[in-house]
Amino acid sequence: MIFLILLLLFLTPCVSGTFVVNVTQASYQAEENQNITLEWTFSTRRDTSLRSISTYCFLYTNDRTSVLFELREGVESPESQDPEFSGRVQWDKDVLTEGRLTLHVSRLRTSDSGFYRCDILVTPDGTNSRRCWLNVTAATHWNKPETPNTGRNKPETPNRGRRRRIGLYSALALVSVLLALCVCVLLNFRRQAASEQGSDSASGPTEAL
Fold first, then answer.
1. What is the C-alpha to C-alpha distance for residues 19 and 54, in angstroms, rounded to an integer?
2. Sequence-ordered alpha helix ranges (H) in 16-148
3. Which three-class secondary structure state does DSSP give residue 94?
4. How many CB atoms lie within 10 A of CB 31?
């Protein structure tokens, strides 16, 4: 792998003028857990064979560099791929000889954000490279709307509150009437008792005479 990288770097200034590599898009935007397709195009000839093509693609950020995909003379080299991309990168073999390097990255993570560069070597045409930017944002979670409260804590309606107040006032009025009746009965009882006591006092001396 180191030999291939050195070879790519050595040949780039020699033949980059005739061998052209481009990116289909300069930047990509996606959310985590989504899938995305990154594509590079390069110049080929009719007799370009799969064995004549080697590629070295990697992700680089401010703090790390990770191998995304490596192809050695038309044969994929999964052992050089970084574990973070293991099982998440697929490529289209059928279109490679047509000058298209297509990489499908699945189950995106926010840590996949960064620059993606592919160095492409076609023997004997030359080598060149291009990069693109991918920004992966966190998935948006929509809050589920709250269902109407139909239980015991159902908000009290104005009519219901008014009926409760009227019922409370009616009960208080009834209690007041009952208390007034009790007071009247008590007063009448006391007057009757006093009247009977006065009658007994008036008839007592008369009988003694």
1. 14
2. none
3. coil
4. 14
